[in-house]
Amino acid sequence: MITYKNEAEIAKIRAAGRVLFEVMQEVKAAVRPGVSTYELDQIAEAAIVRRGGRPSEKGYNGYPGSICASVDAEVVHGIPLRSTLLREGQIVSIDCTVELDGYQADMARTFAVGKIDPSAQLFVDRTREAFYQGIRFAKVGYRIGDISSAIQSYVESFGYGVVRVLCGHGIGQEMHEDPEVPNFGLAGHGLRLRPGLVIAVEPMTTMSGNYDVYRKRDRWTYVTRDHSLAAHYENTICVTPDGEPEILTIPSDAKEDV
Length: 258
Ligand code: MG
Known about the structure:
By secondary structure, the chain is α+β, with helices and mostly antiparallel strands. The protein has one domain (about 5-245): Creatine Amidinohydrolase. The protein has 4 helices and 15 strands. The strands form 4 sheets. It has a 5-stranded antiparallel beta sheet with strand order 8-7-9-14-15. It is globular and about 45 Å long. Magnesium ion binds near residues 95, 97, 108, 200 and 234.
């Protein structure tokens, strides 16, 4: 069931989004060679709780972390571990959801650990840009498939791939709501976009172009089958009555993206 949010509800998601943005800044500042993904998880959890929020991922279907931390070929849902120490040249995707006052915001970024290969940085940057290519169509008058198609065609134009088995989603009082927002699809198809639709748009990409993934024995972590690098970029956005969508996980007064 799709629920459209009123102004008061959107304000709550925006407030959760501001907390999450600040949490992500703290995590980014801690990413360096030698840090464990467990330490990043602890930093995120403390930052969320300090701001009155709740880490929604913790306990979700038994998930143990407050963030997902996925390194290199790991696409999403990497479990933070004391034994996973980040090394120079790696990339790490951090995905986090915060609940504040009953409403959720969801966001992911891929960070470089120290100095990384320029081709890897370009891949990460283009994954971010894929999000912006997609949300050009997150407006009244377009459909979900327009967002999906724009992401897919942009990503594939570089020979990269979009992961098929996971997708973006509606969000509100629940972390995952309808509709699904795939990162591939046909323009002109799918749900017509209406004001008050709040969705997480989240390109998950593979550098090799092969989008086949498998799940590790931990039953959570998705990894590229060919062990290609994978990147992830996500914001929670809202379709507005007229014009551009609002990005609820980047505060309007933020000087730069995290
Ligand atoms: Mg997320």
